[in-house]
């Protein structure tokens, strides 16, 4: 399938949860028909991230530490700081991006591979 032909399905479930102060958490669940290891690659490898994310990191996100995310799609690329905080392949990735915390949890569903 060509990227231009890809049409993602809707999230299985989505919710906004109020956090401390003026912080909110957006939670959504999406089912993929791929092994976790393949989805993990799409979350951490710059070559794969550039295919779907609004940014390209300056390094592989499979290790903790500082990173720079270059935003794409604007009038000009814009660099911003990020920090990979927690990495547990192929199940958990947590990073801070400009003060926002992003947490990716990958769990097998028992349907299809991995």
Question: Would you give an account of this structure?
Answer:
The chain has helices at residues 36-44, 46-49, and strands at residues 13-18, 24-29, 55-57, 65-71, 78-88, 92-97, 100-105. It has 114 residues and is mainly beta. It has a domain at 35-105: Alpha-D-Glucose-1,6-Bisphosphate, Chain A, domain 4 (2-Layer Sandwich), CATH 3.30.530.20. A hairpin with a 6-residue loop joins strand 4 (65-71) and strand 5 (78-88). The radius of gyration is 15 Å and the shape is globular. InterPro entries: ASHA1/2-like_C (IPR013538), START-like_dom_sf (IPR023393). It holds the Pfam family AHSA1.
Q: What can be said about this structure in brief?
A:
The protein is mainly beta and 114 residues long. It has a domain at 35-105: Alpha-D-Glucose-1,6-Bisphosphate, Chain A, domain 4 (2-Layer Sandwich), CATH 3.30.530.
Low-confidence runs of at least 5 consecutive residues: none
Which architecture of the domain at 35-105 would the CATH scheme give at its second level?
A: 2-Layer Sandwich
**What does the overall shape look like?**
globular
| Run of helices and strands | EEHHEEEEE
What is the helix content? 10-25%
Give the DSSP E fraction (strand runs of 2 or more residues). 35-45%
Largest sheet entry: 5 strands, antiparallel
Topology:
Elements: E1 13-18, E2 24-29, H1 36-44, H2 46-49, E3 55-57, E4 65-71, E5 78-88, E6 92-97, E7 100-105
Antiparallel strand pairs: 1-2, 3-4, 4-5, 5-6, 6-7
Which short descriptors sum up this protein?
two-stranded antiparallel sheet; five-stranded antiparallel β-sheet; Alpha-D-Glucose-1,6-Bisphosphate, Chain A, domain 4; 114 residues; 11% helix; mainly beta
